[in-house]
Task: structure prediction
Amino acid sequence: MLHRMYEGQVCSVARALEIVGERWTLLILRDALLGVRRFDDFQASLGIARNVLTDRLARLVEAGVLEKRAYSERPPRHEYRLTDKGRDLWPVVHALVTWGDRHEAPDGPPRVFLHRGCGGAVDDHRCCERCGAALEVRDVETVPGPGAPA
Amino acid sequence: MLHRMYEGQVCSVARALEIVGERWTLLILRDALLGVRRFDDFQASLGIARNVLTDRLARLVEAGVLEKRAYSERPPRHEYRLTDKGRDLWPVVHALVTWGDRHEAPDGPPRVFLHRGCGGAVDDHRCCERCGAALEVRDVETVPGPGAPA
Result:
């Protein structure tokens, strides 16, 4: 966990930011929500220094957001999986995506979220524009949007 | 604006974090959404160093999230008001509140959000639990919750 910057603040935003309020951390969570699990894949996706990534992953494990799980014994290898507490951060990442798409994506959204199976777009309340269902992260798939790199 | 840490990332989360991805910044926005407008009120609420607050407010003005507006000519005084782009960050703050309330508020939510006029609680899709309306920030009021300081 990050050191407690906001001791005096009885506020759930401040408490949430103690855990996720660091810019790389939210990008690590974005990748985890997109299915990335392994150190080298996070590293390749983010271009982050390995020692910084090691530190951020350890903090997220300590905070109960990620779980470290062995997927091979010989050689010993592990991966990082979202816990339920981690998956519950999807609304934060989705809200950041939505705002970035609206205000900071001159070429259009790099990535589009769709209601899996239904195909409707996900609106900014995380509901399906086609069928109206309130969506959880497991109900959503993502495809490249008009602003995706060529 | 913060320096661009994520040059290689064509991603709306990364672009959003270039602007709001600093812990104090999201707490400044929380306060602004709660109606705080004046430097001294932000300072008293946050307990942040004045030079840091000056810097963060200037970045938010530069990014078009806050607008600096004179409210007195003699003596010259100004305040910081959210722009539409700034109000559009409400879903980010709400998602952080919701997650913090669920996972980091052992005494219960310090603050509760209600549908103004209706009185229904705001669910985690920013819809009213009583009437089902999809809520914008102007539709919401906040009252102290069970976890509020005594």
